[in-house]
């Protein structure tokens, strides 16, 4: 695999191109259709996706549900503002979670953090408290008070973990309501929250789907299968090393239940069988490409649960994924590197420049790109 310099993942982006809210309706988002074997592009809408799918295709979708993990509150005692992100359970303490807390140098063990109720439950306490237990590397160990489990607490007192670039782009715009964000930043097919492996970011390519679009996919004779990859905050972490291969890749938890595993296995080698596996989003790509080679039926047990640190970059040979629906990604990100592995980085940057010129909206709430063979 060639050594990709991180500088090759840079591209210019006007702030006005960053979407601060989704298209309404969701499937009215624009869709840039590209093919790896052709320089031609098409400008369509997301609701046109079934036109590019074939009977016998398998659409693989990440159903992981986002927990409202953003913490915005104050420190008890001096009312100092506090903001952070609940990351997930501490590996060795059932009653503790890890949290990234910004500007936390003045915090000390035993400090209590107070958060306002965002869940809107009638008759419920207006505030909830979190205790800082101790530092754990760059993070804090926290425990939740009030008799609620961590996910229950976050559902009541947490906020939607929108990426920082969306929050920054919203600065000075009209007020946004968190209850709306909770709906907007969740796929319509999201399953229940896995409290042991929560997603703190959305599988954003899936945000474009509506019930009508799913019905159109079904009418096209396309089969669907849902998998789980818990999206962590590392998905937005910029690459800061000189070479991409030196980037410390974050780990994300994956789960494929027995029925989904059987469906994926039944496609065998998609190119040899003349049937395609179409991944919805980079998270689905990463899960599929992390599966062991060969027949999944040869693996022990029923469903699969595993962690992946796979970094997909130019030079990667795709084993399972034939086509991909994705959004427009951040510069210097591993997600952009993944798209570059499909199309080549030079072409990706040319397409991104074209998309900006055509008024496409970028990032999590933005428009989409369909990459075909």
Give structural attributes:
six-stranded antiparallel β-barrel, 373 residues, 2 domains, nine-stranded mixed sheet, Thrombin, subunit H, 9 helices
Order of helices and strands: EEEEEEEEEHHHHEEHHEHEEHHE
Low-confidence spans? none
CATH class annotation of the largest domain: Alpha Beta
Instruction: List the domain count as a whole number.
Output: 2
Rg over C-alpha atoms, rounded to the nearest angstrom:
21 Å
Oligomer: single chain
Strand content: 15-25%
Q: What class, by secondary structure content?
A: alpha+beta
Compute the average pLDDT. 92
| Spatial shape | globular
Strand order of the largest sheet: 2-1-15-14-12-3-10-11-13
How many DSSP H or I helices? 9
Question: What is the CA-CA span between the terminal residues?
Answer: 21 Å
**Largest sheet descriptor:** 9 strands, mixed
The CATH topology of the largest domain comes to: QueA-like
- Helical fraction equals 10-25%
CATH homologous superfamily caption of the largest domain: QueA-like
Gross CATH architecture of the largest domain = 3-Layer(aba) Sandwich
The overall strand count is 15
